[in-house]
Amino acid sequence: MGDVIRLATLADAGVVHDVSIRGYKPLKDMDIKFVGATADLATVEENIRRNANYVLERDGRIIATVTVAFPWALGERSIQPYPFIWWFAVDPDFKRQGVGTALLDYVEEQVLVAQVKAPAVYLATATRHPWLVSIYEHRGYVGFYEHEYEGDNIIFLRKVLDESLFAELGNLDVLVNSN
């Protein structure tokens, strides 16, 4: 069967919840308070209803998940006019096998560039996490804003997906809401 990437449905919520809780355990152990580390099933269902939650299945088993939240779904929490990647987790049994890379590549290239025509995308992570910032920087993300959240210094990183469109729409490159 191989790998399949698709949008999650409400029927997937229980498995997405399990992958998220187990995938975020290292962050929870570091006391980094990300939603994915402590979410209950109702929060996962709400995420699937409100956002584009993608899953990667291997041989019919969901082994990774990532959410793309659009500015209108984030409302006042959106600080950029671009899609926001969050709630990214890989089943610990499949770490270091390229699963996360495959899922993010698909979302960036096949969804955000090819379908949505997004000039850029952004995400956030805790600066004290020992490797996440460098992983995202290696993928082409660049830090543009920091603030404190739940006692952690959070860095927002952006990746330009379409250089010419980003330059053309350069007036959008502002913090929409820096509160």
From TrEMBL:
Picking any one GO molecular function of the record gives: acyltransferase activity, transferring groups other than amino-acyl groups
Q: Which Gene3D superfamilies match?
A: 3.40.630.30
Q: Which keywords does this Swiss-Prot/TrEMBL entry list?
A: Acyltransferase, Transferase
InterPro entries the UniProt entry points to: Acyl_CoA_acyltransferase (IPR016181), GNAT_dom (IPR000182)
The source's superkingdom equals Bacteria
* Ranges where the N-acetyltransferase domain occurs: 3-162
Q: Where is the signal peptide?
A: none
Q: Does the keyword Acyltransferase apply?
A: yes
Pfam families in the cross-refs: Acetyltransf_1
**Name the UniProt record assigns to this protein:** N-acetyltransferase GCN5
